[in-house]
Design a protein that fits this description.
Layout lengths: L2 H30 L3 H72 L1
């Protein structure tokens, strides 16, 4: 094999390698290309996710407000219960004093 044949063989091998590389690149690009329908679907999914996050945030805010209201109502109810129990205790003590007074008056 002389020098000219070697150069031609090398050029052919390099051209075939270039053609195979280009074809492989074209195939990869063809199979991994994102279509407009897929982009539209991604946009719809992103919008749905955004709406879901907003709904979640609104729900969290509502639950926090509701929890604060319920805590306040519980505190008020506990205060009313303590006041009622104190009143009942005072009423029982007064009734007991009146009963003792009536018994002393009847005995005397």
């Amino acid at each position: 094999m002389n020098r000219t044949e070697f150069i031609i063989a090398t050029a052919v091998i390099l051209f075939v390698a270039f053609a195979l590389g280009w074809f492989a690149s074209w195939l990869v690009n063809r199979f991994t290309r994102v279509t407009k329908a897929e982009i539209g679907e991604l946009d719809r999914m992103a919008q749905a996710l955004h709406e879901a996050e907003e709904t979640r945030d609104q729900s969290i805010t509502y639950m926090q407000q509701r929890e604060a209201e319920m805590t306040n109502q519980l505190s008020q109810t506990e205060a009313e219960l303590r006041a009622a129990m104190d009143g009942l205790r005072d009423a029982r003590q007064e009734a007991e004093e009146l009963r003792a007074y009536v018994e002393r008056q009847n005995a005397g």
